[in-house]
Amino acid sequence: MSNNEGNFKILMKEIDHQKNNKLLISYIGFKPQELSINDLKDPVIIEMESTEKYLDEVKITNGAEEIIKKAIKNFAINYAEKPYAMFGLQSEELENQSQTKIYFLEADLQSIMPKFQSGKKIKIELKNLRQKDYSNSDSSNFVIWGATGRAIEYFDISSAYYSVLDSSKFKKYRFVVEEFMIANRPVYKIWFTDKKIKGNSKESYLLIEKSSYAILSFAIEAVNNDNIWAMMHQSVIRVDYQKLHEKWYLKSLYHEHKSFRWPFNKNKFDQLKIKVHIDLIDTLVNFDIDYAKNIQRADILYLKVQEKLTNKDSIK
Predict the structure, then answer these.
(1) Closest by alpha carbon to 115, among 75, 151, 145?
(2) Cα of 122 vs its chain's centroid, Å
(3) Where in the chain are the domains?
(4) Predicted structure pTM score
(5) Displacement of CA 250 from its chain's centroid (Å)
(6) In this structure, how many other beta carbons lie within 10 angstroms of the beta carbon of residue 152?
(7) For 152-287, where are the E strands, in sequence order?
(8) If we measure between CA atoms, which residue out of 183, 193, 223 comes closest to residue 64?
(9) CB-based contacts of 314: which residues, under 8 Å, 6+ apart?
């Protein structure tokens, strides 16, 4: 499985050049490729061809509500009916309006996810923290999500509440539906906009597979001018899912949060980027995470970091 930049590693035993060993490369939105391992040369660069083909655009409102209702109804069919484990990476980066880096954190992530929408706590542990501080770091920069992996808890549809997935809240939104193909898979792309927020330029969507009504991806881009607090905080969230054994599991999560300086100045802000990328899904969970203990350990680690930064104006 590749990372966010498309890079991947495959560990192999010695290749038998007498055999025609094949490598199958696939990714949502691109045409699958089958390559002969014997023909690969170092460095290996694979260019993929987009398969995203739009059909006639369909602009409707009532149809969107029915599609989302079917997606909600099929949650139990499409998502995990028992706990499973995830392994991957989480990173957190902060930079200013000039893209000057303030800090960068990265850690290995392992998590035990409960049955879909069971209401049980997600168990998350971050290990092997890699940290880089830049000259303008200070104790106020770090956010607690980086310490505890709470990005998944806040944004994954298995645990987070989204009003667009509540049929009683549909009247809040305007919907537009598009139909097109991704990797030969027919999908609906449903754009939804909150009706009530003045000056709202929020553009959000659900990507739903037509055959199963599984949510493959959703995104929320919020640029809200309704009040001064909203103007100072702008967010982009995207969550993608991957299919394994006829079920859909978390694949990646991206959260970008832009905070403007007070008094409000659109040219001065800090931008926080949190990324989660899952490399491995294990449906046979054979370990446990002492959730409270590990969260406590992580928080203590960050308190020590903040204390160091408080006692020092900068870190070179």
Answers:
(1) 75
(2) 16
(3) 1-51, 54-310
(4) 0.70
(5) 8
(6) 24
(7) 173-182, 185-194, 203-209, 215-222, 233-244, 247-261, 265-282
(8) 193
(9) 135, 136, 137
Each residue's pLDDT expressed in tens, for the chain with a length of 316 residues: 555 555 666 666 555 555 667 777 766 556 777 777 677 666 667 776 765 544 444 444 458 999 999 999 999 999 988 889 999 998 888 888 777 887 788 888 888 888 887 878 788 887 787 877 665 555 444 554 555 567 787 788 887 888 899 999 999 888 999 998 988 889 999 999 888 765 444 578 999 999 999 999 999 877 655 555 556 667 889 999 999 989 999 999 998 888 776 666 667 778 888 899 999 999 888 777 765 555 545 554 554 554 454 444 333 3
Q: How many helices (H) and strands (E) does the chain have?
A: 6, 13
Phi, psi of 60 (to 5 degrees): -140, 165
Q: What are phi and psi of 79, to 5 degrees?
A: -120, 175
Question: What's at 256, amino acid-wise?
Answer: E
Give the HSE-up count for residue 172: Cα atoms under 13 Å, Cβ half-sphere. 12
CA torsion, ordered 81, 284, 255, 49, to nearest 10 deg: -100
